[in-house]
């Protein structure tokens, strides 16, 4: 049974606990792993999860998420409302705060981050083709003399089909 804050050094088991928000830090050498685990659990009960909640984010809007509440027993995860999809989801708080989770669905994020997605050059016609995938099917939008015209046609189609 592995537990964070419990390790073996030589013939002893070490229980460690540190909570900066409470200003406490402990380390104790014990004979058995079970004793170390029990002591670590007692410290967590008394002083809370070591990471604790540094800031209460409930009710705050971060990026495209509205933080509803913390998941019981795990303050690293939160219940959020995704403001783009209007779905309620359980997500990692630190990934939201650090900007690693944006809430933008990957299909939309990939479209927005790659200028010219949905366009290709047809050598035989010497023209740019614009297309879009809808429900797994490719819809041809036309051929254009310039790449910019093809991108504009693709963006117009995105507005029509995705918004």
In short:
The chain is α+β, with helices and mostly antiparallel strands and 163 residues long. It is built from four helices and ten strands. The protein is elongated and about 80 Å long.
Characteristic terms for this protein:
single chain, alpha+beta, four-stranded antiparallel beta sheet, three-stranded antiparallel beta sheet
What is the strand and helix layout of this fold?
Blueprint lengths: L5 E4 L2 E8 L4 E7 L2 H15 L13 E2 L2 E7 L2 E9 L5 E5 H5 L8 H8 L5 E4 L4 E8 L2 E8 L2 H16 L1
Antiparallel strand pairs: 1-2, 2-3, 4-5, 5-6, 6-7, 8-9, 9-10
- Work out the number of β strands: 10
The largest β sheet comes out as: 4 strands, antiparallel
What coarse outline follows from CA principal-axis ratios?
A: elongated
Radius of gyration: 26 Å
Helix content percent band: 25-40%
| SSE string | EEEHEEEEHHEEEH
If helices are DSSP runs of H or I spanning 4 or more residues, what is the number of helices?
4
* Percent of residues in β-strands: 35-45%
Please identify the structural class as seen in this structure: alpha+beta
Report mean pLDDT, rounded to a whole number.
83
Q: Which strand order spans the largest sheet, edge to edge or round the barrel? A: 4-5-6-7
Distance between the termini: 50 Å
